[in-house]
Amino acid sequence: MGYDTATKTDPESVVPEEWGGMWFLKDELETDHLGISILELEPGGKGKAHDETHTGQEEIYCVVSGSAEIELADRDETVALETDDLIRLDPDESRQIFNRGDERAKLVLVGAPR
To answer: Which residue among 35, 47, 53, 96 is least enclosed by CB atoms within 10 Å?
Structure first.
């Protein structure tokens, strides 16, 4: 088949429901190199602090609804994103996603080796 389809909830969420949810869809879509995830964060929620040095993948975060702040620890900088904003991150950039807004934030996260 020349394509695959998936639904956000095909895999189990790796984030507890009270904080929102995070669904890794790489396996469901049978991609070889491209990772894609959906992250939803309730107000006050946050993602895991990390970098992708070990995988060598750059990532793009797209805010689908709500707002998010991306803290870049090595730079001591925070990038604020609103609906339809995107950010691309190098593999070695240390980052953490926060929802400091008043509504649930929904992001699509895409990653691939450089």
So the answer is: 53
Q: Find, among 91, 96, 84, 32, the residue nearest to 57 by Cα.
A: 91
**Other C-beta atoms lying within 10 Å of the C-beta of residue 106:** 20
Query: Tokens representing 66?
Result: 């709500």
Residue written as token pair 């797209």: 62
CA distances for 104 relative to 20, 34, 37, 68, 72, angstroms: 8, 26, 16, 10, 22
Is the overall model pTM greater than 0.85, yes or no? yes
Residues in the chain, pLDDT under 50? none
Cα–Cα nearest to 106, from 52, 58, 61, 71: 61
Token pair recorded at residue 9: 């909830």
Chain centre to alpha carbon of residue 14: 12
Asked if residue 90 lies in contact with residue 72, where contact means CB atoms within 8 angstroms, the answer is no
